[in-house]
């Protein structure tokens, strides 16, 4: 079996193109498994995985939990809202206490950028980053690339526009790294107040006009406006944002080609996407959700192979 070059999945930045291709190929095999009548395989029967979430999550957490159970792993769920973290326990103490119960892998979401990296240097387990603040969300980028490959045959040579709140998005950064390593061209588009100042230095095109971005791309990956991360107002109102950056059926019908619409969820319907686009034949949003389980199964399976 081919092996990953790393013991942890901390970010796409740390992966090689070979690592990414291996994960996507393995995910394709697992996608077949989860579409069978019996969806379980015994691959991780002796592995115990802790899902340690210091931030709220529905989709990612459910997806990881399902992936773990499909691989027959033992699963422990930890949520900080009802834990000793509230009493002032440190991150390393919390995780070491969990590991002392003989846990092999930790899937972690944390609001502080770099928290999984810090953890990987201080505890003895495979660490998987399920989102660290506004930094990275590697499994989302992997499932997005997997979904593009499945829909369009390849990622290399495709033009992908990431549209919306780039400034507060961990999905955007991971996607930029992943798509570029797989040979895609990347453009970011959004209000100037929601684009990080350093963004052009990452080798992406920058566009402020959503119509031009849509006309350029093969795939539009539309991001949610992250109001919960915004301490100040970056635009006058949601209605105004929707007016200038919302994607609706009329906008798509004015293009001289068909494009693929993606969204990491949850969608603010009527803000970044209208319902008639989110639910249209252009959209592969529900495929992304299904592919997320297969990709996370692949990541868990391959990382388990690096133990020792």
Automatic annotation (TrEMBL):
One of the record's GO molecular function terms: amino acid binding
The keyword Transferase appears for this protein: yes
Residues annotated for L-aspartate binding in this entry: 87, 170, 224
Keyword Protease carried by entry: no
Catalysed transformations (reactions): carbamoyl phosphate + L-aspartate = N-carbamoyl-L-aspartate + phosphate + H(+)
Positions with a binding annotation for carbamoyl phosphate: 59-60, 109, 137, 140, 265-266
Family matches, as InterPro entries: Asp/Orn_carbamoyltranf_P-bd, Asp/Orn_carbamoylTrfase, Asp/Orn_carbamoylTrfase_sf, Asp_carbamoyltransf, Asp_carbamoyltransf_Asp/Orn-bd
Pfam families: OTCace, OTCace_N
GO biological process, one term: 'de novo' pyrimidine nucleobase biosynthetic process
This enzyme's EC code(s): 2.1.3.2
Protein keywords: Pyrimidine biosynthesis, Transferase
Pathway: Pyrimidine metabolism; UMP biosynthesis via de novo pathway; (S)-dihydroorotate from bicarbonate: step 2/3
Domain Aspartate/ornithine carbamoyltransferase carbamoyl-P binding: 7-150
Domain Aspartate/ornithine carbamoyltransferase Asp/Orn-binding: 157-303
Assembly and oligomerization: Heterododecamer (2C3:3R2) of six catalytic PyrB chains organized as two trimers (C3), and six regulatory PyrI chains organized as three dimers (R2).
Purpose: Catalyzes the condensation of carbamoyl phosphate and aspartate to form carbamoyl aspartate and inorganic phosphate, the committed step in the de novo pyrimidine nucleotide biosynthesis pathway.
Family the UniProt entry places it in: Belongs to the aspartate/ornithine carbamoyltransferase superfamily. ATCase family.
The protein, known as: Aspartate carbamoyltransferase
Lineage of the organism: Bacteria, Pseudomonadati, Bacteroidota, Cytophagia, Cytophagales
């Amino acid at each position: 079996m081919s092996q990953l070059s790393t013991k942890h999945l901390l970010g796409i930045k740390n992966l090689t193109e070979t690592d990414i291709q291996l994960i996507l190929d393995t995910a394709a095999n697992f996608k077949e498994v989860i579409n069978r009548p019996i969806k379980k395989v015994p691959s991780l029967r002796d592995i115990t995985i802790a899902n340690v979430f210091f931030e709220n999550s529905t989709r990612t957490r459910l997806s990881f939990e399902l992936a773990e159970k499909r691989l027959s792993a033992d699963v422990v769920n930890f949520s900080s809202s009802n834990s000793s973290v509230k009493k002032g326990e440190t991150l390393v103490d919390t995780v070491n206490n969990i590991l002392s119960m003989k846990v092999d892998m930790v899937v972690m979401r944390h609001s502080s950028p770099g928290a999984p990296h810090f953890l990987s240097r201080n505890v003895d387990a495979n660490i998987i980053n399920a989102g660290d603040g506004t930094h990275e969300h590697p499994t989302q980028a992997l499932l997005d690339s997997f979904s593009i490959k499945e829909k369009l045959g390849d990622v290399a040579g495709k033009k992908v526009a990431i549209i919306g709140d780039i400034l507060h998005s961990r999905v955007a950064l991971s996607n930029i790294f992943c798509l570029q390593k797989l040979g895609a061209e990347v453009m970011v588009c959004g209000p100037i107040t929601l684009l990080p100042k350093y963004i052009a230095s990452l080798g992406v095109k920058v566009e402020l006009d959503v119509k031009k971005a849509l006309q350029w791309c093969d795939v539009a990956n539309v991001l949610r406006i992250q109001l919960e991360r915004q301490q100040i107002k970056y635009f006058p109102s949601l209605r105004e944002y929707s007016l200038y950056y919302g994607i609706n059926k009329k906008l798509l019908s004015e293009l001289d080609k068909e494009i693929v619409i993606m969204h990491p969820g949850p969608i603010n319907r009527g803000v970044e996407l209208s319902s008639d686009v989110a639910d249209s034949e252009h959209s592969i949003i529900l495929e992304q959700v299904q592919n997320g389980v297969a990709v996370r199964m692949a990541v868990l399976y391959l990382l388990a192979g690096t133990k020792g």
